[in-house]
From TrEMBL:
Pfam families: Usp (PF00582). Coiled coil: none annotated. It comes from the Bacteria. Belongs to the universal stress protein A family. This is Universal stress protein. CDD domains: USP-like. It comes from Pelobium manganitolerans. Residues 1-138 form the UspA domain.
Length: 268
């Protein structure tokens, strides 16, 4: 975890995520890229708004980003870059990720609310759309090291090798132990057939399995986060078709908005 892109909208949640990333980069001897995508309102765009005024807005936005980059670099003694764009966040993030060969995107997460659970927000949208690891930082959470990682998954369904490779790289990079946690409706013993791929994928990582029975998956994960004293929760978002999405709510999105610890979403 050497290069972190922090997507910011200058909200207090984004500022908290920036502080988290700065402290993490200092600990891991990495660097931070502060990224901001902003749009001019359709009303302004359709009006006789002079081009010079648009340039002033862009320059003002860039100046804010540069000041934040300078402050973060001074505070944590790390390398910090900044990028801004007037295009859509998702599209431009992909470009920034490629440009800086980033390891993951860090975003702030506002406290849970009914509207957020139903419709999501910028962070949950990024989790759903980006084919790239997104680390969602809850409001008020600060970096205190990463020693324990809870990987919540469906062991019986299987875990892709690509996911395991990313978890292994992340865990070994921060020197953390991993608990592979699964929730089932009915208890089924884990066999070598179920765990073979994980055993191979997490070789050289300090890891263990835990399997529980519950019909309340989200609650079971929240309980285990506390019991294991996890520093980070890892989940893999599953894609649904439009019609399926009306029935199935993404557990990753729900956990991102409810979690009291950072959630790392690793997409396929």
């Amino acid at each position: 975890m050497k290069t972190l892109i922090v997507a910011t909208d200058f909200s207090k949640e984004a500022e908290n995520a920036l502080q988290y990333a700065g402290a993490a980069a200092q600990k891991l001897q990495g660097k931070v890229v502060i990224f901001n995508a902003f749009n001019i309102s359709s009303h302004t765009g359709n009006s006789l708004f002079p081009a010079s005024a648009v340039k002033e807005m862009i320059a003002y936005n860039n100046a804010i980003l540069q000041r934040k980059a300078d402050d973060l670099a001074t505070e944590f003694g790390i390398e910090v870059h900044c990028e801004s764009s007037m295009m859509e966040l998702d599209e431009e993030l992909d470009k920034a990720i490629e440009k800086y060969k980033a390891d993951l995107v860090v975003m702030g997460m506002a406290p849970s609310s009914l509207s957020q659970d139903l419709f999501g927000n910028t962070t949950t949208s990024a989790i759903a759309k980006l084919k790239f690891p997104v680390l969602a930082i809850p409001a008020g959470v600060s970096f205190k090291g990463i020693k324990k990682i809870l990987f919540a998954c469906d062991i019986l369904r299987g875990v892709e090798q690509e996911i395991l490779n990313k978890i292994k790289t992340f865990a070994m990079g921060v020197g953390a132990q991993v608990e592979v946690f699964s929730v089932q409706n009915k208890l089924k013993a884990l066999t070598a057939e179920h765990t073979a791929r994980i055993d191979e994928g997490l070789q050289d990582v300090d890891y263990a399995y835990k399997n529980v029975v519950s019909t309340k998956v989200i609650q079971a994960i929240e309980d285990e986060v506390k019991a294991f004293e996890a520093d980070i929760l890892i989940m893999v978002p599953h894609k649904y078709s439009f019609w399926s999405s009306l029935v199935h709510q993404s557990k990753t999105r729900i956990m991102a908005s409810r979690s009291e610890i950072p959630l790392l979403s690793i997409a396929l």
